[in-house]
């Protein structure tokens, strides 16, 4: 009897354990907590398309001023770093040797003018005497040739006088352009050669000034298309950090050939440089505004995810789940990206991508809220159809 009772109790215990196990096996697994994310809305707006490049500031004119005549440098009229105007006196060469040459040429000219005058008087007398058959015709012809010879000598004297006067003028060295003078290359008292390789000073034009930069050949079509419309393309010159704009100008021209080694083409932009913000040979970051896209979908850069060459975003659905969607990037500027594939007003995930996948539940964090610490409970999901807009 006792054995039967024990067997019965054992069977009851086994049955109870089996029923408990079967009931647990039929239970559904608990749903994972929603993933907290940040979101931002798709906006409709405009975005500028820029071409960024490194450029070099290049003067329009740079002139090395050298003496056109040899002599002693007697006076320097400029200060290093001075702004000078065109035809402003810069220096003087000792003019006395050239004044003497001018005087000598003037004397030679006066003497030959007198000789020509006398030859012409003799020619008139011979012509009158020939009419009276007092002199032979040959003598008249000889005198005529002498007059013509004196005319040639007189022209030679006039040329020598003009050359001497030019050399005398060259003793006054003037600025050929408006610009800023550099460091003096020759001190007063030195003998300077004519057309010397070492100039007295270098003058650089600063206003206006240009910058030369390169652009990829793939961008050439859209730039030339904008130039063909006659519109001036704005160009900004930025400092090395790209945080400070130095000057604003316009695209002047592009080169006539592509560099086959680098696949780029050079372009030149001009700047008024009214405050001398740009300095010759300075390296700057240039930004060429090609065109502006209007009425396009703008999203935050943080919303874009990439898988190999494909860009995609996570779109928040009405039931607080997410769905990935491929997008095509048109342009990016200042934290915003113009794309196709989404609609204005849609909410896109911008943060918390680690465990996201299609169909997973999310909860939207309030702007400025910190993500939950590791192991902490996620905040409750929003109600169905309730999507809070991000900034």
Textual characterization of the structure:
This protein is an alpha+beta fold. The protein has 4 domains: 35-49 and 294-364, conserved putative lor/sdh protein from methanococcus maripaludis s2 fold; 51-60 and 208-293, Elongation Factor Tu (Ef-tu), domain 3 (Beta Barrel), CATH 2.40.30; 61-94 and 177-204, RNA polymerase II/Efflux pump adaptor protein, barrel-sandwich hybrid domain (OB fold (Dihydrolipoamide Acetyltransferase, E2P), Beta Barrel); 96-170, Orthogonal Bundle (Helix Hairpins), CATH 1.10.287. 27% of the residues lie in helices and 35% in strands. It has 4 helices and 21 strands. It has helices at residues 2-26, 96-131, 137-170, 220-228, and strands at residues 35-41, 43-59, 62-65, 71-76, 83-84, 89-93, 172-174, 179-181, 191-192, 201-204, 209-216, 234-238, 245-254, 264-271, 283-300, 305-307, 310-316, 322-333, 336-340, 347-351, 362-364. The strands form 4 sheets. A 6-stranded antiparallel beta barrel has the order 2-11-14-13-12-15. A 4-stranded antiparallel β-sheet has the order 3-10-8-5, with no helix packed on it. Helix 2 runs antiparallel to helix 3 (137-170). The two termini are 80 Å apart. The model is unreliable at 373-391 (pLDDT under 50).
